[in-house]
Amino acid sequence: MKPKLISFKLCPFVQKAVLTLLEKDIDFDIEYIDLENPPTWFNDISPLGKVPVLQIGDQVLFESSVIVEYLDEVYGDSLHPHDPLLKAQNRSWMEFGNECLMNGYNLIHAADEAAFNEQREALMKKMDRLENELQGGRFFNGDKLSLVDLSFTPFFQRLEYLNDVSPGIIDRTRHPQVTQWSENLMAMDTVKQSTVPEIEQLYKDMMQKSGGHLSTLMAA
What we know:
This protein has 220 residues and is an alpha+beta fold. The chain has 2 domains: 4-74, Glutaredoxin; 84-219, Glutathione S-transferase Yfyf (Class Pi), Chain A, domain 2 (Up-down Bundle). Helix content is 59%, strand content 7%. The chain is built from 10 helices and 4 strands; from the N terminus they run βαβαββαααααααα. It has a 4-stranded mixed beta sheet, with helices on one face. β1 (4-7), α1 and β2 (29-32) form a beta-alpha-beta unit. It is globular and about 50 Å long.
């Protein structure tokens, strides 16, 4: 039965699910909604009122991590490591990636330069932790793509957009391995297929509308 993903065009958590669907070559449908004015039926199927939601026939899954794990378990070869401890560690780092996404969101909404710099430094310290974790392979676990890579991909894509507006957020000198990992992920064909074509413009429009420090930089 073909799964259907309910999505919002800007949502990075939806993108993780789409990347998993694409990497596992799963035939799926996708429907975009406006989260600020969702259709009535969406509130009926989404207990938390958030995307992504995955519909499999009459059944519904919500929360991106649950959806990704389900897709990985049911379709094809797993994108998780086989070793249980390494798999659990990967899951922990996937949660770390969610925290990085929230730092990026906080950067957009930082009201002034001081608040922005505080969030930026918090993010840079997370990148320090990642830098120490990476072992120089093409992906997080070496040369084999895994779910932890797909989990970080939306964050790295949005980090590039942030760096366009505030150069230095991507610091190759401080984080050479993280930067290379990000570039390896961004080069994958599935990344371009995992979002709407206008994703960069939509993201920068959100920056501009935030009214925060980044919108001031963009106006300048």
